[in-house]
Design brief:
Number of helices: 10
Helix content: over 70%
Number of strands: 4
Shape: elongated
Strand order of the largest sheet: 2-3-1-4
Radius of gyration: 32 Å
Number of domains: 2
Length: about 325
Amino acid sequence: MNAPETRASAARGGAIARWWRAHRWALAQSLLRLREHPLGTLLTVAVMGLALALPLSFYLVLLNLDRFGQALGEGQAVSVFLQAGDAQAQAQALARTLRGEQTVAAVTLKSPRQGLAEMAALQGFGPALAALPDNPLPWVLVVEPRVAASPSQIAALVRQLRADPRVALVQDQGPFRARLDALRGFGARVMQVLAALLALAALLVVGASVRNDIQSRSHEIEVLQLVGASAAFVRRPYLYAGLWLGLLSGVVAVALTMLLEAVLAGPAARVDAAWGGRLGLVALDVTPLLALLLAAAMLGWLGARIASARHLAADEPA
């Protein structure tokens, strides 16, 4: 390696070392400044943590309401009851026709004997069914639409089935699904608006905290600027402080949400048991928790960036 390349490499190494020393100093200064005001730091973290825990808890509620809606019959299956007295051949012919439809994923046949056995298994129906002279139940086709089928396509399939002379009754849960979808959409929009408002509140809280710190150190900042410190050098400790405030508030929000899950675990288990374990109520996995920590840290940094950019520029000497 020749001399110019050696000097260039040494210069790059020196620049990296200076950059690392500057950031290490800013990181240490940010922690010291937070420790200087423990009560203010604790209150800021607590307020931000509570604000960020609300949308995360609401997301947890929506997630379990989806499971509850599925247990109430959100499935897309359409039950088709054939005319009484129709033979097995007619039921199989209609099933073959439906399997050829593009919107249909599967068709399951239930014989009158199977239907009678299912009803007999229900509490209170056994003695009454035993008294019947013959089986009055018809053949039933359980039609499973494709996952990609739209509500309008399912509605068209239901109309087609109801117009078939072989069909006595079509049981479709489309209106119920539409209500659930509307409620889910409304809940999701409420969660988005709530998250946006609370994120704005977090920005304002961090900005106010950084602004107060800058005002209390105005003379120190003036001295740094007079001796030639760059705006980035002066601003960097406040950015790290905002980052720490955001990250700590995210930890508080995650802890509060996990505490909420632990408090509700017992009642949720009893509700699930009352529904025969069909609800499958769930807790939050790692992904949304990590996403909240990252978002909280970024909100803290952004709030500090906005506040420091404004107030440091105002304090810059002429």
